[in-house]
């Protein structure tokens, strides 16, 4: 069974503070993703990566940075947290096949509240 | 831009009836169309997918149809059961096939 572990499970941050969300996968997958979920918006792609030491911008990258220091680890960094970044964040990994993303395996999510 | 539109935000059906959720996509190069289920308070998990080289796929009570001309795909859940109640998300890969874009989700309620 594919395993994607996110930490922390929940976090309360102050406006203007720095927040780091971590994701670790033991699937040996090449592709990793960060999505945020908001009511009425579904899942929106923030950043993704298809190889270690490289990240790509998704559809809503503003205010977020990503880091992929190894195949297993993918972090999402909010340098200056804002109220609008209150959401549930999901990390996912995918094996990819011939350069196409395959099934995504999701972590359990991080509920971030910015006050 | 790249989009996946999920047409029903909420769907209610009687137990035992069929449910149909429809999605459309914008990129003709899309090649992979997965569906995910999210039960209340939980994460998402994969339920079924279809690739652009076929137009129908079935897995037990789940059927996915793909109409490439109309750029439309749909999830059919037959003989619905209470445990089918959840949010269902459609998704698609795009020309950049690493990128997976999701619809906004359909909240399915299976009523007794």
Description of the molecule:
- The complex is a heterodimer of chains A (115) and B (112).
- With 115 residues, chain A is mainly beta.
- The radius of gyration of chain A is 13 Å and the shape is globular.
- In chain A, strands 2, 4, 5, 6, 9, 10 and 11 form a seven-stranded mixed β-sheet that branches.
- Chain A has strands at residues 4-7, 10-13, 19-25, 31-38, 42-51, 54-57, 65-67, 73-78, 87-94, 105-106, 110-114.
- Chain A contains no helices and eleven strands.
- In chain A, 0% of the residues lie in helices and 53% in strands.
- In chain B, 36% of the residues are buried.
- Chain B contains no helices and eleven strands.
- Chain B is 0% helix and 56% strand.
- Chain B is an all-beta fold.
- The termini of chain B are far apart.
Write a concise synopsis of the structure shown.
The complex is a heterodimer of chains A (115) and B (112). Chain A is mostly beta strands. Helices cover 0% and strands 53% of the residues of chain A.
Radius of gyration of chain B: 13 Å
**Strand-and-helix sequence of chain A, N→C?**
EEEEEEEEEEE
Strand content of chain B: over 45%
Q: Approximately how much helix is present in the residues of chain B?
A: under 10%
The count of β-strands of chain B is 11
By oligomeric state, this entry counts as heterodimer
Number of helices of chain B: 0
Largest interface: A-B, 28 and 24 residues
Determine the N-to-C terminus distance of chain A.
37 Å
Overall outline of chain B: globular
């Amino acid at each position: 069974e594919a395993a994607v572990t996110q930490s922390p499970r929940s976090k309360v941050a102050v406006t203007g503070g720095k927040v780091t969300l971590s994701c670790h996968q033991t699937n040996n997958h090449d592709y990793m993703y960060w999505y945020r979920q908001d009511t009425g918006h579904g899942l929106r792609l923030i950043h993704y990566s298809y190889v270690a030491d490289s990240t790509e911008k998704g559809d809503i990258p503003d205010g977020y940075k990503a880091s992929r220091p190894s195949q297993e680890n993918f972090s999402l960094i909010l340098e200056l947290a804002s109220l609008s970044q209150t959401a549930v964040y999901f990390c996912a990994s995918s094996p990819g096949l011939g350069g196409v993303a395959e099934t995504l395996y999701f972590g359990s999510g991080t509920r971030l509240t910015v006050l | 831009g790249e989009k996946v539109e999920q047409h029903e935000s909420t769907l209610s059906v009687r137990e035992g009836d069929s449910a149909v959720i429809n999605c459309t996509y914008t990129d003709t190069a899309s090649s992979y169309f997965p569906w995910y289920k999210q039960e209340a308070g939980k994460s998402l998990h994969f339920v079924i997918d279809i690739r652009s080289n076929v137009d129908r796929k079935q897995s037990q009570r789940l059927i996915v149809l793909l109409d490439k001309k109309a750029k439309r795909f749909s999830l059919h859940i037959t003989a619905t059961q209470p445990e089918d109640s959840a949010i269902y998300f459609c998704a698609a890969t795009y020309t950049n096939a690493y990128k997976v874009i999701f619809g906004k989700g359909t909240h399915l309620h299976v009523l007794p």
